[in-house]
Amino acid sequence: MSAGRYDLKIEQGATFTRKFLIKNLDTPVDLTGQTFRGSIRKTASSANIIETFTMNVKDQVTNTGEFEISLTATQTSGIPVNKSKTAEREITSYAYDIEREFSDGRVERVLEGLANVSPEVTR
Fold first, then answer.
1. E strands within 4-106?
2. Which of 40, 60, 84, 110 has its CA 20 to 30 A from that of 32?
3. 41: how many CB neighbours lie within 10 A of its CB?
4. Does 21 map to a domain?
5. Residue 123: inside a domain
């Protein structure tokens, strides 16, 4: 399966959480035994990780196919943003992706896109 494309909007200094649902032909996929990982980098080829998502696979009996990614307010505060030259917020864009690993060791990229970070004013 090809990775889905989804651009994130992350507000610097705020808790970030997004829930996703993996389906196969409109049927939620059981994620039991699978682990997820994901990170943010300046570009896809950058060596340095800007931040790493916390992953939570939801209860697969009541929430089949659901997993959640999150960053704490402290983590989002630490994401560097470009300095604005005007009162307008200048969005800083990074590359991110989410992968899932199956119990047999196979790895599949689930999501990819831009992590667009809006700068914090109240700090």
1. 4-5, 8-11, 16-21, 23-24, 27-28, 35-41, 49-52, 54-57, 66-71, 92-101
2. 40
3. 17
4. yes
5. no
Task: Find the CATH number of the domain harbouring 64.
Answer: 2.60.40.10
Asked whether residue 42 is domain-assigned, the answer is: yes
25 Ramachandran zone, left/alpha/beta (phi>0; psi -120 to 50): left
* Residues of the domain holding 17: 4-118
Total domains present in the chain: 1
3-state class of 100 per DSSP?
strand
What is the C-alpha end-to-end distance of the chain, expressed in Å?
Answer: 42
pLDDT, tens only, 33-61: 999 999 999 999 999 999 999 999 999 99
pTM (2 d.p.): 0.91
